[in-house]
Design goal:
Helix content: under 10%
Distance between the termini: 103 Å
Number of helices: 0
Order of helices and strands: EEEEEEEEEEEEEEEEEEEEEEE
Oligomer: single chain
Radius of gyration: 29 Å
Shape: rod-shaped
Number of strands: 23
């Protein structure tokens, strides 16, 4: 009966552990060799040949040979060779693919928002594989953005830029940038961007009410005199403006 070997492709998350399996048919004790994508021999009949402790032989039977690779990185990607040395050499290639999910994206603001002008917001996902999909959302609706993508050492940097007109009613508007990816299993990594009100060196008055971008103070008195601060903040910085209230 003719001997044969079969290999199984595998996909794993970066940092995880991959199982690389070689299935044997009609094995008679011939030499089995496993090589990495650079054709370096990892194991020779179950004996370690390459000094890389991330590789471990976990199973060597007449039907199945299996090794594991821990702390996988994108540099480990490629074809792993299962070779069976008989009268005729048989080999199959197990392709290892590494998936890199995105972290929570960051929001960059090119310049401070000024009423009557436009503000430019850029959502950045610096590293993923395959490339993450970015989506701007405002008030439950998608805001179309200009997407750019750059490949770097097998991973991708993705950005989405939007430009929106700045009106007084938009002060304090809430936006979010969502990053989706096959490795996230339907979940999203979300970065929010919004405005907040505060009062310089004091707490807000008891009768102060904040509703989105609006700070409302009822039954004004001179105790409400002061400087109020409206701020916008994200991971890349802080911007704000002051409003002085004087009650006579």
């Amino acid at each position: 009966r003719c001997q044969a070997v079969q290999a199984e492709n595998v996909t794993v998350l970066e940092g995880g552990t991959a199982q690389i399996s070689c299935r044997l048919q009609n094995y008679d004790g011939s030499i089995v060799v496993i090589q990495n994508p650079r054709r370096q021999t990892l194991f020779f009949n179950g004996t370690r040949a390459l000094k890389d402790d991330r590789f471990q032989m976990v199973l060597f039977t007449p039907r199945l040979v299996r090794i594991t690779l821990s702390n996988v990185s994108v540099s480990d990607e490629g074809g792993y060779f299962c070779q069976l040395y008989t009268d005729d050499t048989h080999h199959q290639v197990a392709t290892l693919s590494v998936s890199v999910p995105p972290e929570t994206p960051a929001v960059e603001v090119k310049k401070e928002a000024v009423e009557g002008s436009e503000v430019e917001l850029t959502c950045v996902s610096p590293r993923s594989k395959p490339a993450a999909t970015l989506r701007w959302v405002r008030g439950g609706r998608e805001v179309p953005g200009v997407v750019s993508q750059q490949e770097n050492a097998k991973t991708f940097s993705v950005s989405s830029t939007i430009r929106i007109p700045v009106e007084r009613k938009d002060n304090g508007a809430a936006l979010s940038c969502e990053a989706s990816h096959p490795a996230l299993g339907g979940q999203k990594r979300i970065r929010h961007y919004r405005l907040d009100w505060s009062r310089i060196n004091e707490t807000l008055p008891e009768r102060a009410e904040i509703s989105g971008p609006t700070l409302q103070i009822s039954r004004l008195s001179q105790s409400h005199n002061g400087t109020y601060l409206c701020q916008a903040q994200n991971d890349y910085g802080l911007a704000g403006d002051h409003y002085s209230l004087l009650v006579y």
